[in-house]
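User: Predict the structure for this protein chain, please.
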Amino acid sequence: MGISKGKSDSIDIDGLMGRIDNENKVVQEESRLAENIAELKQATAEFNTAIDRMESVVTSFNNALEKIRTNGIGTRVHPQTMKSLSEICTNFVVEMGKQLELQKEHEARMAKMLKSGKGIWLSDRWAKVLAASFLFYVVVSFIYILCKVQ
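Assistant: Here is the predicted structure, written as structure tokens:
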């Protein structure tokens, strides 16, 4: 005789399959989480490496800056270059002085012309135009008078 189950007892196969699927999903999620954790650890390690490199760069920069401050920056200029630069500056100052003198003389002449002309000043060109217009008016008037008298 063997041990057997009764005919009325049934095995829930769908429930067993559901539990197996759930176990498979759990295993898959665990593997995904393990991969994500590994990626995060790798990213953290790379980030820490980058921070160390940046600290090294900043330290090197600060050391170089301090060295420049203590030693100073030296430059050398050829004596001929300095002489040429000095001459250029001197010539510039002299020329500016001459220009200022010429400008003052011009202003004085203009003021004198305006005073003698009692506030009216015409350039040579406009004076010629005015004289030509006046002469034309006199000639036309003279011709008109001659024509009327005859």
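The mean pLDDT is 82.
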